[in-house]
Design goal:
By secondary structure, the chain is of the alpha/beta class. It is about 25% helix and about 20% strand. The protein folds into two domains: about 210 residues, Ribonuclease Z/Hydroxyacylglutathione hydrolase-like (Metallo-beta-lactamase, Chain A, 4-Layer Sandwich); about 55 residues, no CATH class.
């Protein structure tokens, strides 16, 4: 995908089946579930030594769970944390809990960012893990303590309504889930997610002190506050391009996608359409565009 407004880093070794050390307190393991929306696969993170936590066990992949258990042999997994309940991040939590007795932690069960409009369907319904229920629900600012480490939960809705990031206190590290990644922009797809929430969460992270993000897919994001500001600028430029296309006469999402994503492979145009829809919803909410009542993905949008 050709990026017009910022560059992304796609050089990443997933080291399947091995724990890659990131400093003294963190190890990364990548699930072999690569694809157009997961890059080389989902990253699971082991936090601590001895008594440890696992962030995002990934899909229900028995071989990956066994790899985590081998990597932590002689240690005890006490907590399993989930950034959000998409099926490439959370289903493995149940299998890992069954093997370890660890406590499941997350914001809550999967939910939509808003109610469905009349006649609307959730195009990402199959991507939600409807079975996940945490043993302990986490709110913004909650702390998770371990042996020599503490994580702070940061509510970052947008990609998913129940998305959390986790800051590792006393370090420059933040586990950013799918909210900020270095290999590509994040999919924001209503009603599963919401662009207004996503942008607000970017602002929230940009004000924090952490400088290195460990994302759900791909390698670390360095100089993270600057990168987040770049992401926000990228989204605003995309928004401006959408408004421009409407000013030129485009009236459907398909028309807008064909114009502003013309360099994007056709296989990704469905995801691009969802992103455009998210921007349109946000523009309508902010009064910059108007739309018919109960508009859905193929609706007509006009200048306000």
């Amino acid at each position: 995908m050709r990026m017009t407004f910022m560059d992304f880093e796609r050089d990443f070794d997933p080291a399947y089946g091995r724990a890659v050390a990131i400093g003294d307190q963190v190890r990364r393991m990548t699930v072999p579930n690569g694809g157009p929306f997961t890059f080389h696969g989902t990253n699971s993170y082991i936090v601590g030594r001895g008594d440890v936590a696992v962030i995002d066990p990934g899909p229900d992949d028995p071989e990956h769970i066994e790899a985590i258990l081998r990597a932590t042999a002689g240690e005890r997994i006490r907590q399993i944390l989930v950034t959000h309940t998409h099926r490439d991040h959370s289903p493995g939590a149940a299998r890992l809990k069954a093997r370890t007795g660890a406590t499941l932690l997350g914001e809550g069960p999967h939910r939509l960012s808003r109610p469905l409009a009349t006649g609307e369907t959730n195009m990402l319904d199959a991507s939600g893990d409807m079975d996940f229920v945490p043993d302990r629900a986490l709110a913004d600012g909650d702390r998770i303590n371990g042996d020599g480490w503490t994580l702070t939960a940061i509510a970052t809705p947008g990609h998913a309504a129940n998305h959390l990031a986790f800051a590792l206190e006393g370090t420059p590290l933040l586990f950013s889930g799918d909210h900020v990644m270095k290999w590509a922009t994040t999919i924001v797809a209503p009603p599963d997610g919401a662009m207004s929430d996503y942008m607000a969460s970017l602002d929230k992270l940009a004000e924090r002190p952490e400088t290195i993000y460990l994302p759900g897919h791909g390698g670390p994001v360095e100089d993270a506050p600057s990168f987040v500001r770049g992401l926000k600028a990228h989204r605003r430029m995309r928004e401006a391009a959408i408004v421009d296309r409407i000013g030129r006469g485009d009236r459907t999402i398909a028309d807008i996608v064909a114009a502003i994503y013309r360099d994007t492979p056709p296989a990704l145009h469905g995801a691009a359409a969802l992103s455009v829809f998210a921007h349109l919803e946000d523009l309508v909410a902010r009064g910059r565009l108007r739309a018919p009542e109960g508009v859905t993905l193929l609706g007509i949008f006009e200048p306000a």
